[in-house]
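User: Show me a protein chain along with its predicted structure.
Assistant: Here is one chain, sequence first, then structure tokens.
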Amino acid sequence: MIRHILLIKFKDIAAPSDINQVKDLFEAIPNKINGVISVEWGINNSPENLAKGYTHSVFMTFKKEDDRQRYLPHPEHDALKATFLPLIEDLVVFDYQT
């Protein structure tokens, strides 16, 4: 399996409704793209104050490498990015295989 982690720092202009729209788009991906097993959305609640301004995360699981490669150029991923990218100040993407 492939794990795909995003740490997100939203711009100040991102309204709660904008962020909820992004959440909904991410959570819909498994129903739209074969091979995406799951998507989890999270809001930082660590008491350690080490998040460096990152407030949200996305944790995606792909069945195999081919599925990740299908997801990256997929039109549904492009549609998600069209909404998501203008709202982010910074983003960390980290993938690993289990």
